[in-house]
């Protein structure tokens, strides 16, 4: 008998009306003409293609992890999005998932070194009923200091846990291409994790079908075959990442999660931990959300929402990581951040 999740909530974040410049801070963007000219892939008759507009910084600074932003229209239908990237003079495309942030999507790339010279990247997205789409490709130089940049540099994170999809034909270790530092990078192609009964798919950080992160068909790589596995995936939240939450006003946060398990799971809890990766950690969380579940059938993706007032809440400026855990009678079935699977880089500003 199929057990229905008791936490399901059918909300979808709506696209905000703010402009690209305010969403992406000071980083330049594609022109509107380029957004309309995104490359559709696949054959969905009668459907209009997704429109992708990508941030176009003047440089990446080698001191940190570059942040890539994109606006994808129609926003509310996007199922998965990812950034393909490679250094200059290297033929294979690596990829990282994008997560919803405000009215757009963002991804954090591994930390580039000056030896990368220039980084090539583009965004691809999928949505039900729309042809697969690819945004404009950009080529961005890597500099050692922002003063060397000829314009606005990319946003940069000081610390990050980056889930990287290693392309077919590339070495599995390190999980980054030449010219990138492996610090903070998680290899989603780890063979040992694929063999583990508790292996985890980081599926794009938002509503993504199983396998949505894997390489798309194309001249650079073939999609690998995938079997069932345990999965716990951040889809979105209300309010969305990058929002401010005030402890004095009794903040409420609803986090939508997708869960899939190889075996049936009995009753337990779904736990969401917000923490600060730099100068903190999940052992001293910024806030915790816990909600009971009635169980999950085997190999049947379910969407649930964990919501309510915070537990163990404290001021964090910001909370920049989100850990998801599925428990069965107090036993952890699957979790991000325990070993190699990465926590999600979802940021919330928790005010007094």
Envelope shape: globular
Number of domains: 2
CATH superfamily of the largest domain: Immunoglobulins
What is the first-to-last residue Cα distance? Answer: 46 Å
Q: Can you identify the CATH class of the largest domain?
A: Mainly Beta
Topology order in helix (H) and strand (E) letters: HHEEEEEEEEEEEEEEHEEEEEEEEEEE
> Strand count, sense and closure of the main sheet?
7 strands, mixed
Contiguous uncertain segments of 5+ residues: 1-24, 32-40, 190-227
* Estimated share of beta-strand residues: 35-45%
Radius of gyration: 19 Å
Structural class: mainly beta
Written description of the protein model:
The chain has helices spanning 20-23, 32-36, 191-195; strands at residues 39-41, 51-54, 60-61, 65-73, 80-87, 94-97, 99-101, 104-108, 118-126, 132-134, 138-143, 156-157, 162-164, 185-187, 200-201, 230-238, 244-246, 252-260, 268-275, 287-293, 302-309, 316-319, 321-328, 331-335, 348-351. Strands 1, 3, 5, 6, 9, 10 and 11 form a seven-stranded mixed beta sheet that branches. Strands 2, 4, 7, 8 and 12 form a five-stranded antiparallel beta sheet that branches. Strands 15-16-18-21 form a four-stranded mixed beta sheet, with no helix packed on it. It has 352 residues and is mostly beta strands. 4% of the residues lie in helices and 37% in strands. 46% of the residues are buried. It starts with 19 loop residues before the first helix and ends with a strand. A hairpin with a 5-residue loop joins strand 9 and strand 10. The protein has two domains: 20-201, Immunoglobulins (Immunoglobulin-like), CATH 2.60.40.10; 230-351, Immunoglobulin-like (Sandwich).
């Amino acid at each position: 008998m199929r057990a229905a999740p008791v936490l399901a909530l059918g909300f979808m974040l709506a696209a905000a009306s703010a402009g690209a410049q305010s969403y992406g801070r000071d980083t330049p963007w594609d022109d509107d003409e380029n957004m309309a000219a995104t490359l559709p892939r696949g054959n969905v008759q009668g459907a209009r293609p997704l429109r992708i507009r990508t941030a176009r910084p003047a440089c990446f600074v080698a001191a940190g992890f570059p942040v890539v932003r994109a606006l994808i229209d129609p926003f509310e239908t996007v199922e998965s999005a990812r950034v393909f990237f490679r250094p200059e003079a290297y033929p294979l495309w690596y990829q990282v998932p994008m997560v919803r942030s405000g009215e757009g999507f963002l991804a954090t790339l591994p930390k580039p070194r000056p030896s990368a010279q220039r980084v090539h990247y583009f965004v691809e997205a999928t949505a039900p009923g729309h042809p697969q789409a690819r945004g404009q490709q950009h080529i961005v130089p890597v500099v050692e200091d922002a003063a060397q940049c000829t314009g606005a540099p990319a946003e940069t994170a000081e610390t990050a846990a980056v889930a990287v999809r290693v392309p077919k034909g590339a070495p599995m270790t390190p999980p980054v291409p030449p010219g990138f530092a492996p610090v903070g990078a998680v290899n989603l192609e780890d063979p040992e994790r694929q063999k583990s009964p508790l292996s985890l798919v980081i599926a794009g950080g938002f509503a993504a079908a199983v396998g949505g992160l894997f390489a798309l068909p194309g001249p650079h790589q073939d999609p690998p075959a995938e079997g069932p596995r345990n999965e716990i995936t951040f889809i979105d939240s209300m309010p969305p990442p990058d929002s401010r939450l005030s402890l004095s006003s009794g903040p409420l946060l609803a986090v939508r999660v997708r869960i899939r398990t190889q075996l049936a799971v009995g009753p337990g809890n779904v736990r969401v931990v917000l923490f600060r990766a730099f100068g903190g950690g999940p052992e001293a969380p910024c806030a915790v959300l816990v909600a009971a579940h009635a169980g999950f059938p085997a190999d049947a993706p379910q969407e649930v929402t964990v919501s309510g007032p915070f537990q163990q809440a404290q001021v964090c400026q910001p909370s920049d990581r989100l850990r998801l855990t599925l428990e069965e009678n107090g036993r952890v079935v699957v979790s991000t951040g325990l070993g190699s699977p990465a926590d999600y880089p979802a940021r919330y500003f928790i005010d007094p």
